[in-house]
Write a structure and sequence with these properties.
Order of helices and strands: HHHHH
Largest sheet: none
């Protein structure tokens, strides 16, 4: 639920970014040199990022899709405006229930300090030396 709100907000942000680029492109007449190129670049980056967010709404629940959604979370961390929300989503993204929902394999819970018995030089499992 929180992630869906995050994606909707990210989509609105990138559509606004794209609109800013179009506005800069059309408002560049009489402005500084290179305004058209900058406006086109801003519009292209906004459109590409918005397209990635829209595509994420149709990704299946698969282990590879978890990685694709993680790219969106990282993309949100890069933007200064979306960083606080993206960090919150990133903290929740690595929870076990989120991983399980996408079908990611979970490692077995092994308490720290417990592992295989120590090996001696001959490869035996903790046999005393004579």
């Amino acid at each position: 639920m929180l992630y869906d709100l995050y994606r909707a907000g990210l989509l609105a942000f990138y559509l606004g970014f794209c609109a800013l680029g179009v506005w800069a492109l059309h408002g560049a007449e009489g402005g500084p040199a290179g305004g058209e190129v900058m406006g086109l670049g801003i519009a292209a980056v906004g459109a590409l990022c918005a397209l990635l967010v829209v595509a994420s709404f149709w990704l299946p629940r698969a282990p590879w899709a978890w990685n694709a959604h993680l790219v969106l979370v990282v993309l949100g961390v890069v933007g200064v405006v979306t960083t606080p929300c993206a960090l919150l989503v990133a903290l929740l993204w690595f929870r076990r229930d989120t991983l399980a929902w996408f079908g990611q394999r979970l490692e077995r819970d092994v308490p720290h300090g417990e592992g295989p018995p120590p090996q001696d030089e001959e490869g035996g499992a903790g046999t005393p030396r004579a």
